Amino acid sequence: MNAESDRRQDAAAAGDGTQGGEAGEPALGSRAPHFIKRSRPLHLSWQVGVFVVGLAVVVAGIIMLPLPGPGWLVIFGGMAIWATEFVWAQLVLRWTKRKVTEAAQRALDPRVRRRNIILTVTGLVIAGALVGIYLWKFGMVMPWKAGG
């Protein structure tokens, strides 16, 4: 009887792909192989293993944030590992993908690109003018003594 109710829950969780939210997104839920989902103790140990591996990757990414390395990329990799098993991580990744896509579309907007180019050129002109004024006033002499 318990196995039958587990099968019904698995079937409901798998659904027909409509739980995925937008079209083309996979359904939410565990992506563990069926033989693992059939056994509750095996599925629980699978989830613990996925959580531990994902946690190790996320912690490595957090360590890489102030150190050399692709910190954010590794953190999102750990989230992707968690998303193979946990709905909350799947929802976080979907939200992140949506925000990144929106930001990329905004960055490609011609008005935004024109504004960014104007701001960059203005900043470079100001920096060039300041360097020119410094060189005109002091020449190539540095304001500190190098070499003692």
Biggest sheet: strands, sense, closure? none
The geometry reads as: elongated
- Percentage beta strand: under 5%
Unreliable parts: 1-20
Please trace the helix and strand order, writing H or E for each element.
HHHHHH
Please work out how many helical segments DSSP would assign. 6
Helix content range of the residues, please?
Answer: over 70%
- State the total count of DSSP E strands: 0
Rg for CA atoms: 26 Å
From the helix content, strand content and strand pairing, which structural class follows?
mainly alpha
N→C terminal distance: 85 Å
Report the average pLDDT across residues.
79
Describe the structure.
The chain is an all-alpha fold and 148 residues long. Helix content is 72%, strand content 0%. It has six helices and no strands. The chain has helices spanning 2-14, 34-38, 40-64, 71-83, 87-107, 110-138. Helix 3 runs antiparallel to helix 4 (71-83) and helix 4 (71-83) crosses helix 5. 7% of the residues are buried. Mean pLDDT is 79; it is low at 1-20.
Pick out its properties.
mainly alpha, elongated, 148 residues, 6 helices
